Amino acid sequence: MLPSIFIYIISCSAIAVTSASNILVFMPLPFKSHIRGFQPLFEELTHRGHNVTVVSSYPQNRRIANYTDIGPFIPKGHERNVMDSIDMNFLTSVFSVWDIGFKFSEVLTHKSMEEFLRTNTDSFDLVIIESCCQEYTVALGHKYNAPVINLAPAMIWSSISKWLHVPSTFSYIPNVLLKTTSNMSFIQRLKNTITGILQLYVENYLYLPKMKEIMDTHFTYKGWESRPSLEDMLNNVSLTLVNAHYAIGISRPYLPGVIDIGGMHIKEPKSLSVDLQTFVDSAEQGVIYFSFGSSINLNHLPQEKLNIFLSTIKKLKQKVIIKWTPNSTIELPQHIMTGSWFPQNDILAHPNVKLFITHGGLHSLEETVYFEKPVVAVPFFGDQFLNMKYVEKTGYGKVVDFSKMTEESFGNSIKEVLSNPTFKKNVEIQSRIYRDQPMKPLDRAVYWVEYVIRNGGAKHLKSDSVGLNDVQYFLLDIVFLLLIPIVCLIWSCYLFFVKITYKLY
């Protein structure tokens, strides 16, 4: 019996060793929420026995077995001024995204980054990238002769859909940069179409050539001269994991190589610290949690708007927890707790938390749906507007326009969501839809990552339309051919009637 057990243990160990892979995660740009959202995947892969090397601007502050950090590479002046983004129209928002990609490519000039790109000779079985504003990173798949998995931090937009060959119909799939849902008016569909065309075609001439220039400058290695074009390498990505779910956003068609893993970062709640637990438990009227995430600092907002927030929450009967470090001159009443960081996941899980005041970031919405908390949101930029359109559509929150916000409008939104049980019921419905999954998002993500490794890049997941150009894909040549007899018939009828008319007169 004992020898059999010993042989079984040795066999399992051998399987674990032989199935372990070396994985490179390359996400150097300073998008903190992006790297944090996918961090559970990287750690879980190490728990499965894989060796994970993460190149990012936000290394971990703790040691993790089989996990190697390379970084940080945060460029100077990387923090954005939210006031520069809030009034962008649908055209300037597209160009601003391109500009972010150009500006933040400065991380590639960091000494440690240059050394890694120039001297690293490790062997990797898989490369994981985030293509948003950094399409050039796909070159690492060629360098290491490894399949590439792309991470999408939000709903994929038109340009990504194009090289994934995923249907992205402008009539009902809204662009992530626009402030609309699937139910679009004529003008909204027009804007959606123009934005999509910009991302599909104009960026081929204004954006991707610059990405290629960055790639050719910084991603030089033995054999780089013969690598495929940037477009071909993007078309060859094996799998895309998308931080999305139809309970929180749009229902849209995918191909087998695109997988939704929205909410992967959500963890089972832990106990709160003693002071936080006491504060929340002692709130007879409940607690409101107020956080604008990692990218928006309340101290950087116009004083007028900050005063509106403070004046409103000072009058509330509920206790309020605010992720914010106020200036020493600001006096706050006892029912308000502030701090530079709070365990948002654990706070939202507490039954005495009645409302979440948020900026509408996707991770925050995934948590609020999971833990069944209605919201009042003040979106600032990016996909936050689109996210909150879906919140309004499904009826579990109210949206406040920051540029038009008054103390009255902000306060009334809070009172309405707290007093009307419909908001709570609607978020409970969405939570049931979200939780009703055959497997947890993290397990699904790990499964598909290992699937790509097991199947040598899983080329069979890609669409057969990859080899088609736009004329073939949209059947424009067929349409043209079919139009020829129709045009000829119309022209013949015209000539016939002209001839008849001439004879009559």
Short description:
It catalyses: glucuronate acceptor + UDP-alpha-D-glucuronate = acceptor beta-D-glucuronoside + UDP + H(+). The chain is of the alpha/beta class.
Structure write-up:
Keywords: Endoplasmic reticulum, Glycoprotein, Glycosyltransferase, Membrane, Transferase, Transmembrane, Transmembrane helix. The protein has about 500 residues and is an alpha/beta fold. It is built from 20 helices and 13 strands. Strand 4 (about 125-130), helix 6 (about 140-145) and strand 5 (about 150) form a beta-alpha-beta unit. The radius of gyration is 26 Å and the shape is globular. Mean pLDDT is about 90; it is low at about 5-20.
